[in-house]
Amino acid sequence: MNSVLVLSSTKKPLMPCRPARARQLLTAGKAAVYRQQPFTIILKDRADGEVQDVEIKVDPGSKTTGIALVGHFEQQGAVVLFGANLTHRGQVIKNNLESRRSLRRGRRGRKTRYRQARFLNRTRPAGWLPPSVESRVHNVESVAAKLAARCPITLAAVELVKFDMQAMENPEISGIEYQQGTLAGYELREYLLEKWARKCVYCDAENVPLQVEHIRARTNSGSDRVSNLTLACQPCNQRKGARPVEDFLKTKPDTLKRVLAHAKAPLKDAAAVNAPRWALTDRLKARWPTAFGSGGRTKFNRTRQGFAKDHWIDAACVSDSGERVTIRDGFRPLGIVAKGRGTRQVVRTDKYGFPRGKAGRIKRVFGFSTGDRVRLVQPAGKYAGVHVGRLAGIRATGQLDIATATATITASHKNFTLIQRGDGYGYAM
Question: What range does the domain containing 234 cover?
Fold first, then answer.
């Protein structure tokens, strides 16, 4: 389990403590709960205290980013104090923008409110990123700021070099052409492991040695481009040999269709990691001295120490300081999911783009708003009992929707108790 974050009576970040120690302080009345997620206590009778160096480490990802807080102690060395997997909503933002664009273009061709094209009257500021990419940077920056307010972070480390898309698309690239490329220095094999979900593409075998496999064999004019490469276990690789993949998988039409479709999939995940890397590092460098590492070094550190594959573990192994880290037994990371902070859309539309009503004008009902973490005590009915979750919706009538791990329940506001105000994120162990 994660260590408990600790604040002094003046809200100065102190060193995190073990959950057992936090229970002792709460039971003795020497501390109080400051935040439920991430769980933080505030001391009542201590205004200061000694702190050690704590490093925040980030392993950026397209869909999920790993974050770890590593304490550096004189006797214990590097110890993981806090771990989290931050799930982004970049694809949701991209889909919303595409939907809005299609509706706007459709209006121009109908006898409805005309909106003049505005593609030449705007300039992009320096460092501009697409909204779906900017959201990933903002999520990491926001979570890092929350942790910095509750933990004495003094250093930062981030995995800067992730995927070398130039070398993957053209293995023979070199010289000036390579130097002017997008990115350099990451193994093709690691990209294939992520692209093909770390299992044999032909038999779905997992946790076995995997070999780089040419979908169309080089003897049949197959290339070394990443779109022609996949991963296979040794038995499948030997059985296939130089045979055409259509012949090898003729008895598995679904697998054949999946392989051919996924092989041509764009490198959008790699691009989503590469595009914001400098913006993320610049924002971290503005707060702390920052070290950098490569994806290959992260994997080397993790495998040499025998750790399982996970985003927060990769984060703990980033850079030179990840060569030797300690992860306590039973450690469980915190799951953080970006949920957004409402919508700015003024007029709702149906699926054809026609107006169907305005957005709700009420942001808070009886002290509750969407995204708040609440406790529901349902006295009777199908869902009788106590439920804890995130408010998924509110109504002016006072009926609230709570999303729990198993269901979404609608109940009166009178049965709800506020635990923590919403901050745009959902939390779960």
Answer: 165-266
- CATH number for position 241: 1.10.30
Euclidean distance between CA atoms 280 and 344, whole angstroms: 26
Residues contacting residue 186 through CB under 8 Å, at least 6 positions apart: 161, 162, 163, 164, 294, 295, 296
**Among 266, 293, 309, residue at a domain's last position:** 266
In this structure, is residue 175 part of a structural domain? yes
Any domain includes 181? yes
Out of 250, 266, 282, pick the residue that ends a domain: 266
**Does 385 map to a domain?**
yes
Distance CA(303)–CA(179), nearest Å, equals 30
Question: How far, in Å, CA of 339 to CA of 335, rounded?
Answer: 12
Q: Model-level pTM?
A: 0.77
Spell out the per-residue pLDDT of the chain, length 429, in tens: 789 999 999 999 999 999 999 999 999 999 999 999 899 999 999 988 889 999 999 999 888 999 999 999 988 899 999 999 999 998 899 998 888 888 777 776 776 666 676 777 777 888 888 898 899 999 999 999 999 999 999 999 998 865 545 555 555 544 444 433 433 334 577 778 878 888 999 998 888 888 888 999 988 888 888 788 899 999 999 999 989 999 999 888 899 888 888 887 766 666 677 778 888 889 999 999 999 888 878 888 999 999 998 999 999 999 989 999 999 988 999 999 999 887 777 777 777 777 777 766 678 889 999 889 999 999 988 889 999 989 988 888 899 999 988 889 999 999 999 999 988 898 887
Number of domains in the chain: 2
